[in-house]
Specification:
By secondary structure, this protein is of the alpha/beta class. It is globular.
């Protein structure tokens, strides 16, 4: 589990210890290139994000790439939900993506717009890495609907499954 916000990281660490779970925890932000970033410190802890201006008030956080952390690992499933920074995470994960079977990623046009990113840019990275893109939607009656080929519903916070399932 990777969590850049110090408060949330402590919550996760405490939960892992409380439940005696075996989880590797990493206190980093993930992006395209290593360095330092500032992340917001909103009261709604699940909505913190990388700040565009490093002059902004926020928490200084080390930034690394998925390739630096996991380059040689086989990954069965990679879950990415980083409040608009999905493109940057994918650009720093070229080697990891080549060793990954499935990616679940949140597509959120509003979150992407704050960083000048289009949904198609994120989906293109996954497609060019050889993934089939599948929409995963919850219907009105609570059932899970799958769309392949991918058909976005236009909802905020849609989940996409990028998979190599069915490939040799």
């Amino acid at each position: 589990a990777i969590e850049p916000h110090p408060n949330i990281f402590r919550y996760i660490k405490n939960n892992v210890e409380l439940n005696m779970a075996t989880v590797n925890l990493y206190p980093f932000a993930i992006g395209k290139d290593p360095g330092m970033v500032k992340i917001s410190n909103k009261h709604a802890d699940d909505m913190n994000t990388v700040l565009k201006s490093q002059d902004s008030k926020g928490k200084d956080t080390e930034l690394t790439t998925l390739d630096k952390l996991f380059e040689r690992n086989q990954v069965w499933i990679l879950k990415i939900d980083v409040e608009g920074m999905e493109k940057e995470v994918l650009l720093g994960a070229r080697a990891v993506l080549s060793n990954t079977r499935n990616v679940i990623i949140e597509v959120d046009k509003e979150n992407y717009e704050q960083f000048g990113v289009k949904t198609d840019e994120v989906l293109s990275i996954l497609a060019s890495a050889g993934f089939n893109l599948v929409g995963v939607h919850t219907s009105k009656n609570g059932a899970i609907d799958i769309s392949f080929p991918l058909k976005l519903e236009g909802r905020r916070g849609e989940n996409i499954l990028a998979t190599r399932m069915g490939q040799a």
